[in-house]
Design goal:
binds pyridoxal-5'-phosphate, 16 strands, alpha/beta, seven-stranded mixed beta sheet, four-stranded mixed beta sheet, single chain, 36% helix
């Protein structure tokens, strides 16, 4: 692995390195910095909250940033997705979603020990979430045989795989607490896209066989897939539980949320204390992080973000398209503010990374994928430079 470069300062879509080199950021720190780095509105909210109360425990106490953010998220998600549980990382928000799903059934006097996930999926790095990542392609192959076993089926995007899912659930629904899916785009698993119809089919199967549906929007949430703030909206479905993180605070603080519908919440709310959800991270709903998130979420209504994303989509389609001509390139695809150049394979990753860096861009290929997930505020010039850097790199190396 090449040695890490020393970052010193950021602004907008620029990263300033200690050695004086400046980089255009193509991936917005794993797509968290969706409004660009150091956004003044988020910085202002952070300063104000830092002065008033950086942190307070959420046990027996509540605070306005948490209440306001819960309300804002429920409003954005719509329907009855109006019960919000805050944690401090994406993986843990998925853990909470899984725990909710298992206990939902337990509280209904049913023991359902399994989850159903999909090949190509990625849901986190903790032990429970590793077990629902793609077991062969994922980064956790090493742990096969150690992790709990859950059914991992192919995405139902053909009649054969649709029948397979339906058939599996007809036999095993009684053991499955929930289906979990990254709606429309499987991110860390390889930037694999599926259609709204496929997502809708998964929803229909969950309904037909009476299992819960969890949409992991940690990658796709907050406009990344274009046209709507959340990917699930495009399939006109309502998941039982949604997880968000990554872009939630605009890339400033670690924060995640698990949002559940009313019938999920109601299963925990009773006179029986054993029915309560026993989960309480120390930094749950950290006020500083909640304030940053409120400012970030607010920017989606006070600025034309979805329009900016549409412009990015068109530009990336145009500017990444020439990469198709290289025989080493297998596919070029764009959705929302996600641009992907998929190669047949990347034999020398170190050299590829070094060459990209020599073009003064920050792009982090993985497996056989070169991808862009820029800030929505990226300028046309910056975006063109990113696409050109990929083109020039391919020309140099392949
Ligand atoms: C990044 C990611 C996670 C894990 O989030 P962390 O904050 O890294 O724990 C889970 N699910 C999806 C879809 C992700 O993209």
């Amino acid at each position: 692995m090449p040695a890490p470069v020393m970052a010193e300062k950021t602004k907008g879509s620029t990263i300033y390195l200690a050695n004086g080199q400046t980089l255009i950021d193509g991936i917005a720190s794993w797509w968290t910095a969706c409004h660009g780095y150091n956004h003044p509105a988020i910085a202002k909210a952070a300063r104000k909250q830092l002065k008033a109360m950086p942190h307070i425990m959420l046990g027996g106490m509540v605070h306005q940033p948490a209440l306001s953010l819960s309300k804002a998220l429920s409003d954005l998600l719509g329907h009855d997705l109006n019960h919000v549980f805050f944690t401090d990382s994406g993986s843990v928000s998925v853990e909470v979603a899984l725990k909710m799903a298992f206990q939902y059934w337990l509280n209904h006097k049913e023991k359902r020990p399994h989850l159903l996930a999909f090949k190509g999926g990625y849901h986190g790095d903790t032990l429970a979430t590793m077990a629902i990542c793609d077991p062969e392609e994922g980064m956790h192959t090493l742990f096969n045989g150690i992790l709990p076993q859950h059914p991992i089926l192919p995405l139902p995007d053909t009649t054969t795989t649709q029948r397979k899912l339906d058939h599996y659930l007809s036999k095993h629904a009684g053991e499955i607490a929930a289906i979990i899916v990254e709606p429309l785009v499987q991110g860390a698993g390889g930037m694999i896209f599926h259609t709204a119809e496929t997502l809708h089919f998964i929803y229909k199967m969950a309904q037909k066989h009476n299992v819960l549906l969890i949409c992991d929007e940690i990658f796709t949430g907050f406009g990344r897939t274009g046209d709507s703030l959340f990917a699930f909206e495009k399939a006109t479905i309502v998941p039982d539980i949604v997880t968000v993180s990554k872009a939630l605070t605009g890339g400033t603080m670690a924060l995640a949320a698990t949002i559940a519908r009313t019938h999920i919440y109601d299963a925990f709310y009773s006179d029986n204390p054993q029915h309560a959800l026993m989960h309480g991270p120390t930094f749950m709903a950290n006020p500083l992080a909640c304030s940053c998130a409120l400012a970030s979420v607010g920017l989606f209504s006070s600025t034309p973000r979805l329009k900016q994303i549409a412009v990015i989509t068109e530009r990336m389609k145009e500017k990444l398209d020439p990469c198709r001509h290289f025989p080493a390139v297998k596919d070029v695809r764009v959705l929302g503010a996600i641009g992907v150049v998929e190669l047949h394979d990347i034999p020398d990753m170190k050299r590829l990374k070094a060459t990209l860096l020599s073009h003064n861009v920050w792009i982090r290929p993985f497996r056989n994928i070169i991808y862009l997930t820029p800030a929505f505020t990226i300028t046309r010039l910056e975006l063109d430079s990113l696409c050109q850097a990929i083109y020039k790199t391919l020309k140099q190396l392949y």
